[in-house]
Amino acid sequence: MAKKEAKTDLWVYDLLKEAKICLDPQGCSIKEIDEALKTASKKGTGNVGFPEYVGVVKDFILVIEDKPELSKHIKYDDKNLISTDGKSVEQFAVNGAYFYGKHLINNTNFKKVIAFGVSGNEKHHKITPLFINEREYCKIMPDVESFYIFNKENIDEYYTREILGENTDLQKETTEILKFAKNLHEDLRNYGNLQETEKPLVVSGILLALREIEKGSFNLEQLNGDDIDTDGNKIFAAIDKNLQRSKVSPTVKKDKLLTQFAMIKDAKRLNEINTTLGKTPLKYYAEQIYDNIYKTIKYTKTAEDYLGRFYGEFMSYSGGDGQTLGIILTPKHITQLFCDLVDLKPDDIVFDPCCGTAGFLIAAMHNMLKKAKTESQKESIRKNQLHGIELQPYMFTIATTNMIIRGDGKSNLIDEDFLRCNESELQLKGATVGMMNPPYSQGSKANPSLYEISFVEHLLDSLVEDAKAVVIIPQSSLTGKTTDEQNCKENILKHHTLEGVITLSGDTFYGVGTNPCIAIFTAHKPHSKDKKCKFIDFKDDGFKVAPHIGLIETEYAKDKKQHLLDVWFDRIEAPTKFCVKSTIEATDEWLHAFYYFNDEIPTEEDFDKTIADYLTFEFSMIAHGKSYLFRGDIND
Description:
Layout: H1 2-18, E1 24-25, H2 31-37, E2 53-57, E3 60-67, H3 86-91, H4 93-107, E4 112-120, E5 125-133, E6 138-140, H5 155-163, H6 169-192, H7 199-210, H8 231-245, H9 251-261, H10 263-266, H11 268-271, H12 281-299, H13 306-316, H14 321-324, H15 332-341, E7 350-352, H16 359-371, H17 375-384, E8 386-389, H18 393-405, E9 412-414, H19 423-427, E10 433-436, H20 452-461, E11 468-474, H21 483-495, E12 497-503, E13 516-522, E14 533-537, E15 543-546, E16 550-553, H22 556-568, E17 579-582, H23 592-595, H24 604-623
Parallel strand pairs: 3-4, 7-8, 7-10, 8-9, 10-11, 12-14
Antiparallel strand pairs: 1-2, 2-3, 4-5, 5-6, 11-13, 12-13, 14-17, 15-16
Helix pairs in contact: 6-12, 6-13, 7-8, 7-12, 7-13, 7-18, 9-18, 15-16, 20-21
């Protein structure tokens, strides 16, 4: 038993170290806490008692009690409360943690304790946090996989969101942005009479024009509703100046963008003074966007694709135009996860051939800039290491605008059909990482090149040798339901390696009705027969659907993502219900559900319960005259 306990202690220590949390084992370096532990015997004798680990993060005491067996995790009393009798406190992890947490609250000046009951081992375990305050109030929190959300960077947010049940400043800001998106959509329709594809062009065009305010070449007061020099002409001129200032090249590309933005100066209704507003719709939109959007985007340092969020909101109110085009914009947490899954480096070259609003490229840029060490390296990232293709002209315009606003320096995007691009020419970009969310549900027997798996194959062929490709596609794409899709899977394995597939929540693209997954490949390296791929079930990702808002991140999302990355990079083991490692065939369904087997050994209690349930069932059937069920004599 002592050896098992020591092994559990070491595993918990590794979790703490990975989370960058420093706690003391069997005592505490903080004098006040150490004094309190001198009377913390679990036997109630008033003698010394030590939890496995204890310490302070900000103004929280963290205390951990662990047990090597899952069966010793928690015990409740007859009132369904955590049992506090001496035997339970000694033998069960959560009960012991609760005991120490209460003792420290009562015997120190600290007001908040988070106590953890930990049981099991690296592969099969439970980690249950308890929040205890000075009133001895105890709240059992949902289980976690690590201590990552309790370090200095995350613990305040955890406390605010999960314990107090309040929104953080970021959540409040996001809620306001989404609310404004809805209102702006209505205003664009009511005052501008705009088509669905024109609405995001007006938004992105105004955003570019507003950038000229800092340069002194444009201001909102210039928008006076003049009949000759219209508000649209002034905004269009500011857009032209900003594209020049951003060094968008070649000229043909700049001309394409201006062609898309020309509707701003040409739409008569946008440039006439509206009697309700007392100004032109364009001036009204510009004022609203400046106050509610431009300031937020300008000063944000996150990979949040705000303009993409707006476009997504517009499409959600547009009667399905986005789905008709197969456009499904990628949520922020997925674009960030892509960067983490490939362990993006500052010298990588990233290519997205279906870039939409450029969410992947923006996330990659921010990720790489954080890791860059010199200004010249940062300049190279912005100017040379981000490449994208977008087929839809208005989406191409939005993507380019979004990249310019985020300061990519050059915006290496082209308006072309990716599937018609020559793979050898695309390889000249030198892309070491490919990221893609291809159009969905466009392929058919008549046009097999539009199957999502066909896009994947074309992307892999377009990367350099040993490049990583990460794609998010419908799960059905990896089952090979048609002959053409099956052939694609076979060709992929002949020339490239599948590293693994992560099954995602059905709410990832909330409101679309797609069950997605992430597939990760290594390009131009034939798949070995004995290669073991990882198949992960990540449907429980810590996100939830909130009424009137959509998909939102709970604090547990960080913990669950950290666990996913730890498993993906082989830092920890995981039960097969989360991750299965297996060799594959092209004819397999490349999904966790296909390879899953249950590797959990039932406990003695589980066995006893199953036998008891069976005997109860058998007795009930015999009592009702159905004893033949157990004799095999169906004629009875």
